[in-house]
Design goal:
- α1 crosses α3.
- This protein is of the alpha+beta class.
- The longest helix has 20 residues.
- The protein has a single domain, classed as 3-Layer(aba) Sandwich (Trna Endonuclease, Chain: A, domain 1).
- The relative contact order is 0.20.
- Helices cover about 25% and strands about 35% of the residues.
- The strands form three sheets. The protein has a five-stranded mixed beta sheet. A three-stranded antiparallel beta sheet has the order 4-5-10. A two-stranded antiparallel sheet has the order 7-8.
Length: about 170
């Protein structure tokens, strides 16, 4: 059986994949993984066929049962290496952090019935591009606004901003 951490990671990827599918985006997993877990790409109509639109968003996906949820933001302790990768400004493709917040009790993570499949709680996103360097050795506390739910509407807006050469 997968470890608890690997199950959390798989659920986070499934969450992102489901949102991307509903948003009409392509989805891929870079191999090998050098800090980017998933890539989303636009799909466009050209004539009578669909093709890659050339707009890409790279995602570092994390999942936790221990995030600090406040009134306006989620606090998450991100590894320093991931933080440094995500704050980089000299990259061609925009990058964001997506954190899936799960209940503490694993039995509550996912429920299924003939009518629905429910993944408990929510994923949030933030761009760390241009953030200052850190003196931390192991982790950096980052804050994801509660308004930044990783949703179909949000990812479509992010992709639109990227197409306009703006930050996510």
């Amino acid at each position: 059986m997968l470890t608890r951490n690997h199950r959390q990671e798989a659920l986070c990827r499934a969450y992102i994949h489901a949102v991307a599918a509903q948003a009409g985006l392509g989805y891929s997993i870079p191999t090998p993984d050098y800090g980017i877990d998933l890539c989303l790409r636009t799909i466009v109509s050209r004539g009578n066929r669909r093709t890659d639109g050339g707009i890409q968003l790279d995602i570092q996906a994390k999942s936790t049962t221990r995030a600090g949820i406040g009134d306006t933001e989620v606090a998450y302790d991100l590894g320093v290496e991931a933080y440094n990768d995500l704050r980089e400004t000299e990259v061609q493709c925009p990058r964001i952090l997506v954190v899936l917040v799960l209940p503490t009790a694993e039995a509550q993570w996912l429920n299924q019935s003939p009518d629905e499949l429910t993944l408990r709680h929510c994923a949030y996103w933030v761009s760390l591009r241009g953030r200052p360097p850190t003196d931390a050795v192991r982790t950096v506390r980052v804050f994801l606004p509660l308004a930044n739910v990783f949703s179909v509407t949000a990812v479509q807006a992010i992709m639109q901003r990227i197409s306009e050469r703006s930050d996510p």
